[in-house]
Write a structure and sequence with these properties.
Layout lengths: L4 E7 L2 H11 L6 E8 L3 H14 L4 E7 L6 H8 L8 E6 L3 H6 L2 H8 L16 H10 L4 H7 L13 H11 L3 H4 L4 H11 L8
Length: 204
């Protein structure tokens, strides 16, 4: 019988956590998430990456950050951690933001928002600011609850609506198909392939 893989997630925010948890539930051997660290932006990940790499001889780490405006994924990876990663540590970069992985399931996201399918480009990684793009789409949503959750209120500070994460986490749980999305997102496809081919090595 295949043993579950004890796994620690390290993420920038709760939305990334929800995305990773959904993905990892579908692999065999199963990634058994025992803890999630971070949710404090990329600074926490960058600062602690060497420590996570050292600790990976005892537990699997799945770490995800956004590329944002940092050029390309290989450059960011080399800048943050020039040394090779332990085989038990999976470090993945979403291009450009994790929201682009959600938008890559174009049909599902359009249905969720209640907007025409052609409003969302197939190559979602080419959207420069996916978060802002989602908010603009939400302004035209036929669903009042979507507009109220995602669109910032004029009377309040903030770049996003009052239930931005909660609303998108609902989409991830009920609508998002990462298998459909991977066809339109190279960074998501590479992340899934890394999980599919992962083999734990705790012998070091």
């Amino acid at each position: 019988m295949t043993r579950d893989i004890p796994t620690i997630l390290v993420v920038e925010d709760v939305l990334s956590e929800g995305v990773l948890r959904k993905m990892l539930r579908h692999f065999d051997p199963k990634f058994s998430v025992i803890s999630c660290l971070g949710r404090e932006g990329y600074g926490f990940i960058k600062k602690n990456l060497p420590a996570f790499n050292r600790a990976a001889n005892e537990v699997c780490y799945v770490i995800m950050t956004d590329l944002d405006d940092n050029g390309c994924a290989p450059t960011l990876r080399k800048l943050w951690h020039p040394e090779p990663f332990h085989p038990n540590l999976l470090f993945r970069i979403s291009v450009v933001e994790v929201e682009a992985w959600l938008l890559a399931h174009c049909r599902g996201f359009a249905r969720f928002l209640g907007i025409p399918r052609d409003r969302i480009p197939v190559e979602s990684h080419r959207i420069r600011h996916p978060k802002e793009f989602i908010i603009e789409l939400a302004r035209d949503s036929t669903k009042q609850s979507i507009r109220e959750s995602l669109v910032p209120r004029k009377t309040r500070r903030g770049r996003v609506g009052p239930d931005y994460n909660g609303c998108l986490l609902y989409f991830v749980d009920r609508y998002w198909s990462f298998q459909a999305a991977r066809n339109n997102s190279d960074s998501l496809d590479r992340a899934l392939k890394a999980c599919e081919t992962y083999r734990a090595d705790f012998s070091r």
